[in-house]
Each structure stands twice: as C-alpha cells, then as structure tokens.
What does this fold into?
Amino acid sequence: MELVIAKLLKKSEGPSNLFYPNSVWNNKGGKQFGAAFTSKGDTNELDSFFELDFHNKPNHKKEYSSQTYLNFEIDTPYKGKVNWTKTQTSDPHIHFKGYWDNKKIQENFYPKKTIMIVRKVSSNHFDTYFINDNDPFFEIILEKIKMKNSNKAISQRDSGFVFLNINFSNFQISQPKVSKHKTQSSLVPKQYRRSSDSKRRKATELYAEEFVKNYLEKRGYKFIQKFGMPYDLKFSKDDQDIRVEVKGSTLSNVSVVDVTENEILHSANSLNSPRHAKHDKTTKVFVALVENIKINKKYKASRGELVHFDHFKTLEISSWREFSQNFFSNSNVKLDNNCKFKLTLDRKIIVS
It folds into this structure.
C-alpha cells in the first residue's frame, strides 16, 4: 500500500483559463491555477508528505517532476511547483501546481467530476493521476472521500483532500491510520512504474470490440471470427476479407493509440505466422477507435462512440528491426520482440 493524496477538484483547480479561456474549468475571478490542500490547522501531515518545512521555511517553493496519468493511461510529464500559501492565516494550505496547460485534461475532465491523486515517488517527484467518472475507480475513491468527511454536512462531504492507502498493483484502497503529526512509514521513495489494471483494460477492449462488431454488422458486414492477435476481428463483405484492429479508451478526443510491431507487420502482410495472419488478394486491414467508454465499479462497460475507422496505414518496418538489432548487438541491451509504437489517427470513418 502507498499513501497518496486524493481530492475532487473544484472549478478553480483545473487547466488554467490563461490557456483555455472557453474551458468549463474557466474561473474568471480565480487566480489559483492549481490544487489546494488545506491543512485544517495542522501542517505536519502535509509537511511530511511533500517534505516541506512550514515552521522554518513557510514561504519556500519546491520544484517537482511529475508523470501525468489520465484514467491510469500514461500521458505527458511536466514540471511543477509546490508550496505553502496563506501562511499568515489560521488555516494555511499547500498549493500544488504545474499541470494547467494539459489540453487532454481540458477536453476530458470536468469540475466536480474529476478526482486528482498525488502519488509520491521521491522527495522531488510526485506523479499526478486525473480520474473522471468514466473510470471505475472514480466512484470508489469518491465514496472514501465522503466517508472520511462524514463529520461534515452531506452537501460538503465530497470537498477537501484526504489521505488514502492505494495498492497500485491490484487497486485496493483503504483509509490510512495517519498519526496526528506524522504520515505513515510507507512514504519512502517509490520506484517509477506505470500503473495498470487488467480488469479495466480488458473491459474496455472487449466492449470496444463488441461495439465495432455491432456497428459493422448493421452495415452489412458478416462477422467471421475473433482472433485477438495479430488483429482482433475478421469480417467479410462483397467477397472481401476485412480485418480490424480495435482500440478502445475511456478518454475523448484521442488521436494517438498504441500499436504493436506484429500489428504493423500484419497490416503490411509481412507476418508469416500464425496462419490467419497471411493476406489473400482481397484482404483489407482497418484500425478502429471507440472512445468515451464508461466503466463502472463492477467493470461493466457502456456508452462509447466510434470516432475512427480507416485503413491501417503504416510504413514498412523490417529495415527498422534490422537496424535496431545491429545497433544493440554489442551491448547488454536487447531489442524485445513485438515492440510498441504510437500510431496517429486522423479520426475519420470510412465504411463502405
């Protein structure tokens, strides 16, 4: 378990209106442009988590590095600053800022429907997770926040930050037993790693595949078989062999997706096995993207929108493989099989 900070973000705590003047986060009178963690009269817990020193250096600003995660999908890193503010009041608070120019946050996340998690990696590295209500974790964490604030009026129980214990390997959450003046010993530097939730990924992938299957069947495509590798779905129409690689996301406005080396090789008819990978003269390979999928806390998927269905267009990569293997030949680094690449989509639908 790791001790983290969780908070339901207010309108003033989203992407800055300096960058997105028409954003739903726009707070015309606000000058905050970051998340606020109020001390509630006791600065020690936050001091310990962020490794600041309120009593001796109340105005000290510390820079930190962060990797951003959007619904637990890795996104761009950024540099931010964390500091105490309102230090002359009876209720000083931490100002955690730096993520405000991320366009994807502005496009996919909304006030009072976004939970921020701050995960401590080291003294100067705090990864930032943004979770919207499409993600099953949102409801679970919101319930924990309300439970922690049970002494407040019902309408106010979702406000303010809380400390939570989270196991990022299996996504278990518990309320920490935080002492009055010291955070838990779990606050040791963590090795940087990407979070993953196999249930979430599987639910998203299967729903996206079923969505595409239903979409094409309604348009006269005959479903033949599901494979999974090196492509997901096989159809036929007008005596043509139609193959579809399906991508799904809980986010919106997605323009870049992960593809594997084998998926690229298959799209170019450069993969000799398994047997169903070889093209015939009628084969056409497409990539489909279903976004804005909602996953509830029981991992049941719903909603979604098909925003891309077009030919799988890539470059021939056999020369890249040969060059890369030669490049690493005399080192202790070896090129793994089926490497991942980023494929840019133009978000258009071509269905005959």
